[in-house]
UniProtKB/TrEMBL annotation:
<keyword id="KW-0812">Transmembrane</keyword>
<feature type="transmembrane region" description="Helical">
    <location>
        <begin position="198"/>
        <end position="218"/>
    </location>
</feature>
<feature type="domain" description="Fatty acid desaturase">
    <location>
        <begin position="60"/>
        <end position="277"/>
    </location>
</feature>
<dbReference type="Pfam" id="PF00487">
    <property type="entry name" value="FA_desaturase"/>
</dbReference>
<dbReference type="GO" id="GO:0006629">
    <property type="term" value="P:lipid metabolic process"/>
</dbReference>
<keyword id="KW-0472">Membrane</keyword>
<keyword id="KW-1133">Transmembrane helix</keyword>
<feature type="transmembrane region" description="Helical">
    <location>
        <begin position="61"/>
        <end position="82"/>
    </location>
</feature>
<dbReference type="InterPro" id="IPR005804">
    <property type="entry name" value="FA_desaturase_dom"/>
</dbReference>
<feature type="transmembrane region" description="Helical">
    <location>
        <begin position="94"/>
        <end position="115"/>
    </location>
</feature>
<feature type="transmembrane region" description="Helical">
    <location>
        <begin position="131"/>
        <end position="152"/>
    </location>
</feature>
<protein>
    <recommendedName>
        <fullName>Fatty acid desaturase domain-containing protein</fullName>
    </recommendedName>
</protein>
<feature type="transmembrane region" description="Helical">
    <location>
        <begin position="33"/>
        <end position="55"/>
    </location>
</feature>
């Protein structure tokens, strides 16, 4: 059983749609200085606003919890800016992308240089077909997967080399900023609000990291048929993979639901990606799969690719939840 393009629709129409999408996306593949600066100013205002308004959130646990969730969203927003800078799409200037990217990466405890090398190479060139792709995702998940399925020899190829690879990718600045900037946040919050701020910061960093991991998983693994992942490496086509391996997430705020555009062109900045999607001519996205709430929740259970059945699966004990 080998997946074939004709399973998803008429081959000629699919290839024609690829060209239509590429032509449309190309119109938005340029940075906009006004939108970039506006995005940064709004983000900076959110940082300052949460720091100033924190005393009001301590009056009731529900306010505190809501503030922690919203502040975690600011961390996700900051990471999206960092992600754009890594692709060189936030500003026209490479220096501006590097400076803002390093700061945004520091605020989200992420290495600029390691992410640029691993994400741009392993993720976008191989589109998840190389084992090093898993180096961008917490290894514990895949360690558990390997133990559960008795496939630890696969892990031997990855885990011992991963720390060296990551450390070799980090420059001296990256070794300092991801620790220094959160520490400065903690110091400023402690100076203004006392030790309760430290618990607040721990909460929003933990929630922000969890949100980011869940969104990353949802953007790349879905419980839908006829995805592109089973095409052999030697027949891989990046544009077809972007079209046939993507899906639209209609219920999320922000820009995370438009990730199918990002895989067509990493040069489309996040502040232009929504307008790129909604301004497309009718039927432009006809082969993009739409997720509903049920398939979204099911997709969080997916942990591995079944080579025999040609589909993503969960652990055997949970596969019944996938239907």
């Amino acid at each position: 059983m080998v997946w074939h393009l004709s399973q998803a629709g008429p081959v000629d129409d699919i290839k024609r749609n690829v060209e239509e999408v590429k032509a449309h996306v190309a119109k938005f593949s340029k940075p906009d200085l006004y939108l970039a600066v506006r995005t940064l100013l709004i983000t900076a205002a959110l940082y300052a606003g949460f720091l100033a308004a924190y005393p009001y959130t301590t009056k009731h646990w529900a306010l505190w919890a809501a503030a922690a969730i919203l502040r975690a969203g600011v961390n996700v927003r900051t990471f999206i800016i960092f992600h754009d800078c890594c692709h060189g799409s936030f500003f026209r200037s490479g220096w501006a992308n590097m400076i803002v990217g390093r700061i945004a990466g520091g605020l989200t405890c992420t290495s600029w240089s390691a992410w640029v090398k691993m994400h741009n190479v392993e993720h976008h060139i191989h589109h998840g077909k190389d084992i090093l792709f898993f180096a961008t995702v917490p290894g514990l998940v895949f360690l558990i997967t390997g133990v559960h399925n008795g496939k630890l020899p696969m892990m031997d190829q990855m885990v011992p080399s991963q720390p060296k690879f990551v450390l070799a990718s980090m420059d001296p600045i990256d070794r300092v900023l991801p620790t220094l900037l959160p520490a400065l946040q903690a110091w400023a919050g402690y100076a203004l609000h006392g030790s309760s701020w430290l618990w607040f910061q721990l909460a929003f960093y933990t929630l922000g990291s969890t949100m980011g991991f869940m969104l990353f998983h949802l953007q790349h693994f879905a419980h839908v048929p006829d995805l592109y992942f089973d095409i052999p490496k030697d027949q891989h086509d990046r544009d077809l993979a972007s079209l046939m391996g993507e899906f639209y997430i209609p219920v999320h705020p922000g820009v995370v639901q438009y990730h199918h555009i990002h895989h067509f062109s990493t040069r489309v900045p996040s502040y232009r990606i929504r307008s790129c999607h909604i301004s497309a001519p009718p039927a432009t996205w006809r082969y993009i799969k739409y997720l509903n709430l049920k398939t979204e929740l099911q997709s969080f259970l997916l942990v591995m690719w079944n080579e025999d059945l040609h589909r993503f699966e969960s652990f055997p004990e949970l596969n019944w939840l996938l239907g």
